[in-house]
Structure formats: structure tokens, C-alpha cells
Amino acid sequence: xxxLLRPAARLAAxxxxxxxxxxxxxxxxxxxxxxxxxxxxFQCRSYADNxxxxxxxxVRDALNExxxxxxxANEKVFILGEEVAQYNGAYKVxxxxxxxxxxxxxxxxxxxxxxxxxxxxxxxxxxxxxVCEFMTFNFAMQSIDQVINSAAKTLYMSGGIQPCNIxxxxxxxxxxxxxxxxSQDFSAWYGSxxxxxxxxxxxxxxxxxxxxxxxxxxxxxxxxxxxxLYGQSFPMSEAAQKSDxxxxxxxxxxxxxxxxLTIVTLSRCVGQSLTAAENLKKKxxxxxxVINLRSIKPLDLETIVQSxxxxxxxxxxxxxxxxxxxxxEILALTMEYAFDFLDAPAQRITGADVPTPxxxxxxxxxxxxxxxxxxxAAKLLxx
Amino acid sequence: xxxxxxxxxxxxxxxxxPNEQVLKWYQNMxxxxxxxxxxxxxxxxxxxxxxxVSAGEEAVMVGSAAALAAKDVITCQYREHGVFLQxxxxxxxxxxxxxxxxxxxxxxxxxxxxxxxKDKVGVHAVASTLGTQIPHATGAAYALKMEALxxxxxxxxxxxxxxxxxxASEGDFHGALNMAATQQCPVIFICRNNGFAISTPASxxxxxxxxxxxxxxxxxxxxxxxxxxxxxxxEATKAARRKALEDGGRPILLEFMSYRxxxxxxxxxxxxxxxxEEVAQWKTPTNDPIARLRQWLEHKQLWSESKDxxxxxxxxxxxxxxxxxxxxxxxxxxxxxxxxxxxxxxEEAEAQRQELKRIMSKYPQEYDFHQHVGGLGGx
Lengths: 383, 379
Ligand SMILES: Cc1ncc(C[n+]2csc(CCOP(=O)(O)OP(=O)(O)O)c2C)c(N)n1
What we know:
The complex is a heterodimer of chains A (383) and B (379).
Chain A: H1 9-15, H2 27-30, E1 55-58, H3 59-73, E2 77-81, H4 97-101, E3 106-108, H5 113-125, E4 129-133, H6 144-151, H7 154-157, E5 167-171, H8 187-191, E6 197-199, H9 204-216, E7 221-225, E8 233-236, H10 238-241, E9 253-256, E10 261-265, H11 268-284, E11 288-292, E12 295-297, H12 301-311, E13 314-317, H13 326-338, E14 347-349, H14 360-365, H15 370-380
Parallel strand pairs in A: 2-3, 2-4, 4-5, 5-7, 6-7, 10-11, 10-13, 13-14
Antiparallel strand pairs in A: 1-8, 6-12, 9-11
Helix pairs in contact in A: 3-9, 5-6, 11-15, 12-13
Chain B: H1 19-44, H2 58-67, E1 73-75, H3 81-86, H4 91-98, H5 118-121, H6 133-150, E2 159-164, H7 171-183, E3 187-193, E4 196-197, E5 200-201, H8 202-205, H9 212-218, E6 221-226, H10 230-244, E7 252-257, H11 276-281, H12 289-299, H13 305-328, H14 347-362
Parallel strand pairs in B: 1-2, 2-3, 3-7, 6-7
Antiparallel strand pairs in B: 4-5
Helix pairs in contact in B: 1-2, 1-12, 1-13, 2-10, 4-13, 6-7
The complex binds thiamine diphosphate.
The site of thiamine diphosphate has 15 residues of chain B, from β4.
InterPro entries (chain B): Alpha-ketoacid_DH_E1_comp, DH_E1, THDP-binding
Main location (chain B): mitochondrion
Domain Dehydrogenase E1 component (chain B): 27-333
């Protein structure tokens, strides 16, 4: 019977209706991503269009606003973690929240990940809506048992009577100059667990909309942020600045529309892929479609398949380890659901299969870069 | 109680324990004990996959649960059948879970003795992962504290958490106690020190003075109590509850000393690691909690040999009857395999449900769906 618990290709080929592809963003917005990423130095990378009410937000500010709005809107929401209160968060994401909401809602904890994660889950099982911040997801390994065996499974194992409305959040994935125990991507770990929802914001709008949706969602949600994105600025539309703005899970965003190649990517790699796409356009006149997954569980397979039907080529870009990863999953799904539409083998670019090295030269070689994406795409397209 | 089961200083007993209540405790302790032995045997006969008995610890469960309020929130390890029973679980509820039939609130998803009792008796679903329930109790207590702050007219409540001395070696124990102490959560940590973690004796589990000695390290008031004396257990838990609610809330640690008289579970044979003489010592009227309470009742002329025999026979009959009835019930509806993974069924799960149904309809002779509620229609 287990065969049936995996999606069968037949199923998709016959009955699935695909959502319409949303309109592509204007070129003016995209121009912002033309500059290459340099480790450690992030500046404002796009400009504001004041006339239409669009404002510049860093990802950090967007997350902070999301937290403040949800704390304001619902008494049941509280945030806890190491250094979140007095210190305003290790990355200042919780800045000002202690002053505004007090120590009962913004709680500094001892350095006991399994303890405060367990406390948060216990509080969620008792009806509160905690936001559990990990200083980084590397340290969430101390409490992975609580996240997987308690948060993700209790609703099911209690027979549906103990919901667990909790949000786990913090920086995940590539960070620069901090070595193997501070710089790795756990998307695939959480993405494989039934009972969890997992989102990976890239832009400020993603960050705000996905975090707010996570806090409101009745299920446990893992929000995988990225340290290097916190300081990056993005335009935030007027709608996204409002307190009712949320981004639904399971819907990817086409950040750049194109007809020659589909790049599916997530988190920080979205920005890198957009830069590579611009370069490919300039140098070769190629139109690359860049899909920002936004959420990896549930995964928006429809948007991916729809895009492949148009471009007939797929490249997945992620910073996780190659084995059993997000890109492995997407390539497997592509075989199951879109094989007949491919004109070339689907490819992927991932982090290297080594613990992240510290030395800068080695570190750079261990993760996708804009140049690598550009070169690999050119090869795939036989340019 | 003294070693001959007389209460030495009656003035230390709460005024609120009428004789009928003590008789009810005794009845519940007997019920757990008899249910355990019948279900242990039933496992041997292949009627269920697994079972765990709690012989020797009946007073710990029943006495402590009796001292908690009905609305208090409880998290358990797996050996706390007496807590479920004292709080209102009925034989039918136990049997429904053990046979994973359609009346199990856990929908047949969990292995035997992992009861789901949040709705009926305020006890969280039992988890297999040792120690995870300890910080959950801290969290539940935090939620209760918030509730009390928001609405002072509500009766204040505590959370209580049961765990073995073996589970107390897990990091979660440390996390839970440290968090509860620093956040001042109204939670009672109840350690059942029964001397063994499967085959590992307490002497190899820790080198310090048991679990109680750790309390002061966390700044938590602690009491070690004879867990075979139900009056001591009851009074200690009552006092702990009162203290836990003082000063806006704080944790209390209790260590109840007893002995795991039976095997760890149906998967264990304890004769491999301890002598029968050692076990026999704990089955005497000085050490066995049921025998101790029975002697007290007999001193008070509330109980007799004939009453005891009668009651035991009746309980046996009831358990066997409920087991048979439970076995005859249908299994949970097939849809339960997909539901509750998320609050709402995902699109993918729905597609899989439909596909499973299509295949089962096409090859009905290959599947035994008639044993499930609603048959194929229940999918
Ligand atoms: C995290 C984890 N580690 C190991 C086990 C396997 N295991 C199940 S019960 C047990 C012994 C627990 O002993 P104790 O806490 O003293 O409780 P008791 O069985 O004596 O009631 C072990 C090691 C488990 N279930 N979970």
C-alpha cells in the first residue's frame, strides 16, 4: 500500500488542473538585482517608488513588523527564545517588542533549546500561539526531537484533539565566515516531515506575509529565514504594509517571467538566480523564468510544472547539501509529473557535500554563486 | 503510615478524606492492578501487540491524581494508568485504546498504553519519546499562568507531569525544570522512582542522591516521599499543589520512591537482571501499596477478606467483559489514516485518499475494509 502514499504520475497526468501563471513583476523592480552578491556587505539594492506608496523595507524590519502586528492582534501570541527580549534578538529581529508588549509576551530564556521549545509546544498544546525563535536553526538540533516528535505529530497521535499552533523561526542556511556548525541549510530536514509546514522567505514581502501566515496557521510552521538577507532592502507594496497582509502557503512566486529556462529556487538563492538571469539576458538574449518557492511544504508543484511546459528546461538552485535535498525532491517530482515536457535533463545546483569550510575561498566554492548559476544555465541551454 | 500500616499522626491528614474516598482509591488501585495482569496475559495470547503494567506504583498514580483538581492539566510518561483511572477514564476507554477500535479518541494511531485523554480527563496524549512531556508541562503551566493573569475570576490551575527516574536523565528534564524555575510556572514535577529503567538500576542511572537532590540546584522546592504509602503521596501532592499556586506560581518537584514489581513491558524479562528474592520483598504488606492500604482499611474495619475477594472477582469480570466488547467493535474509519496530519486535509492527501479509494473499490477482494467503520465508505 505504501506505493499509494506517494504521488503517482498517472494521477497528475489525468486530473490535475493547473493554476494560471501570475503576471510577472515589472522590469523596474528587477533592475535592482543586477549587482552581484558580495559576502558580508549588503546595502539597499532597489529603489522606492513613493508615488505608488511602495516603501523600502529590510527583511529584518518586515519580520519585526509581522511580529508586532501579530502580538498586537492576538493576546495568545507570545515570543520566546535566547536574547529575544532585553537584547532585541541576536539579529535584532525582535527590536522594541519587549518595551511594547512586556516581559510576559516577549521572553528571554535560559540556554536550553529543548527546554524552551518544549515549553513553547506545551503552551501551544494548551491553546497559546507561541513564536519560538532559534538563535539559528543550527541550535534547533538540540530540540529537533521536540519539533518532530511532539509538535508535528501530536495532532495526529492525539486523534485530532490536540492542535499545536506554533511558529518556529530563525536564521537558516548559508551564513558567511562562521564555519560548519553555524552555516548549513535544514530545509530538507523539516520539509520531509508530515505535520509540519515549512516556508523560506526571500524578500521583505515574503518575510512579512509568510511569518504572519505562519503565526495564524493552526499547524506547526517552520519559518526558515536567512541571516544574510536580514539587512537587505526590498520594495514593500502598499498592500503588504498593511496589518492584514498574509501570503498563502503552497504558492510559489514567479519573480521573473521567461520562456527559455525555468530556475526554481528558494531563500537567498532567489536573488542570486535573478542576477544570473539578468546576465544571461544581457549576454545571450535568453529569457529565464525564476520561481521563488516561498514555501517548500506544501510545495507548489503546479507552478513548476506549468513553467516547464513553457520553457521545457529546468534548473533547481538551492544552498542545501546535495543528497536527499529540496532539489532532489523537485527533480523527482519533475520526473513524475513533467517528464514528457522536458527537452533536456533537469539539473540542479546545490551546496557542496562537505561541512561548510571556514576559509573564505573554500567557503565560496561550497555554495551556489551567481557566476556558477549563469555558467551552468548556459551549459544547460548549450549556449 | 508506619511499617504496620497505622497512621502515626492523624493530625497530619487532610480533613477532606472521607472513608468512601479511601475505599474508592483502593478500588481504583485494585482495578489498575487486575487490568494490568489481564492485559499482560492478553498480549501473551496475541490479542494486542504490547502492554506495560504498573504493579508497585498504584499508590503513586492514584494518590497523586486524587490530590489534583479536575481541571489541572497533566502530561504522562506511559505507566500512569492509575492517573487516567482516578481522573475518570473508564474500563471501556482503556480497552478501546488497547484494541485500537473506533471508540479510541486517538483513532487507533498509537501503540497500546499511549492513551489520548485531553478531552475526557485533561491528560495529554502519551508520547513514546522519553522526557518530551516534561517541558510540555512547563509550557502548559505557562499557559495556565497567562490565563490566570487575564482572568482572575477563574479558579487557578496547575500542570503536573509524571516521569520515571530514567527519563530524568534526558536533557528535556533539565530544560523543563530550569525553564519552569526561571519563568515561575505553576507545575508539579512528579518523579516515579521505581528503581529501574528497563534493566538499568537507579544505581547506574545517576550517582547523586536520586532525583530530589537536583531540585535545589534549580531553586525548586522538593520533597521525597514513600510512594507505597498512598496517604503520604496524597498529602505531598496536595501540599505541592498549594505551594505551586503561591506567589503567582512556581514549580515543585516530588520524588515518589517505589519499586517496579513487574517486567518493564511485555517485551522484557526482568529475571535476567534481578533476583526473585529482591522482587518478593516488595510484594509484602510493608512494601506493596495495595496490601498496605488494605491493611489500613482492615484496621479501620472498613474492609474484609470476603469483600476483597468479591471485589477482585467483579473487577476481573468487568475487565474481561470490556475487553471482549472492545474487540468486537469496528476499527476506526479508514479516513483516519489521512486526517489530522494537518488541521485541514491537504490537496495531496485528498488526492491520495481518492486514489486509495479507487484502487480499493477496483480490487475489493484484496482489502479487508469491512472491519473499519463505514467500510469503504469510511474512506
Ligand atoms: C528518547 C527515548 N530514549 C529511549 C527510549 C527507550 N525506553 C523506553 S522506556 C525506557 C526506560 C525508562 O525508564 P524510567 O524513566 O525510569 O521509567 P519506568 O519505565 O521505570 O517507569 C527506555 C530507555 C525511549 N522511549 N525514548
